[in-house]
Every structure is written in C-alpha cells, then in structure tokens.
Amino acid sequence: MYTLITAANSSQAYSLKNAINADHTLLGDYLELPDILVQSGKVLKLPDPQNVAYTHQMLALCLDRNIDTIYALREQEKQLLFGARQLFYEYDIKIKVADDKI
C-alpha cells in the first residue's frame, strides 16, 4: 500500500515525505508539474479540486494505485477530502493533514 502526499510542487510535501519516512510514498499535484516527473512515475497528476467529481476521481485514483493514506496539504483538497472521509474510510483509505505525521 502507498501513501499519497499532495502539493508535490511545494517544499512542504518533500519535508513531510522525509518526516513520515514511509517506504511507499507517492507525491502528486493538480497544479502544473514537469512532464519528465509525471512520465517517469515519480509524481502523479492529481484531479483538480475545482472539478465537481473531484472526490470520486481521487477515490478511483487511490483504488487504482493502492493508496491507503492521503496527506492533503492544500486547503481546498483538505476541505473536500475531509467532507468525503466517510466514503474513503469505507475503502480503508485514511485522510490526514501534515500535522498527523503517522
């Protein structure tokens, strides 16, 4: 299983990745990312939280990529994911913020 940290184009995401020391950690962002990182699989292109289907797209991404924990770093992502946390919990996916380090 994997841990997803959003806001991959921020230093906070990399700091959190080092702090949680998870073996299987993925970084992702919905903002523009270098194509080389996305194509290499090192960073995931995430759904845009402005999209009305955002929570369902994120759930599908988590199920497809075996993600069981999401650290949501951007405020809009936090609000939407925490609003749908019961749906994610039904699939054993935990929604966390940076302060929840493990």
Observed structural traits:
102 residues, alpha/beta, Rossmann fold, 5 strands
Set out the fold topology.
Elements: E1 2-5, H1 11-20, E2 25-29, H2 35-40, E3 43-45, H3 54-65, E4 67-71, H4 75-83, H5 85-89, E5 94-96
Parallel strand pairs: 1-2, 1-4, 2-3, 4-5
Tell me what you see in this structure.
The chain has five helices and five strands, in the order βαβαβαβααβ. Strands 3-2-1-4-5 form a five-stranded parallel sheet, with helices on both faces. It is globular, with a radius of gyration of 12 Å. It is α/β, with parallel strands linked by helices. It has helices at 11-20, 35-40, 54-65, 75-83, 85-89; strands spanning 2-5, 25-29, 43-45, 67-71, 94-96. It has a single domain (2-100), classed as Rossmann fold (3-Layer(aba) Sandwich), CATH 3.40.50.20. α1 (11-20) links the parallel β1 (2-5) and β2 (25-29).
Average pLDDT, rounded to a whole number, is 90
Whole-number radius of gyration?
Answer: 12 Å
- How many β-strand stretches? 5
Helix count equals 5
Structural class: alpha/beta
User: H/E element string?
Assistant: EHEHEHEHHE
Which stretches are low in confidence, meaning pLDDT under 50 for 5 or more residues running? none
The structural domain count equals 1
Query: Any idea what the CATH architecture is?
Result: 3-Layer(aba) Sandwich
Most strands sheet: 5 strands, parallel
Strand content is: 15-25%
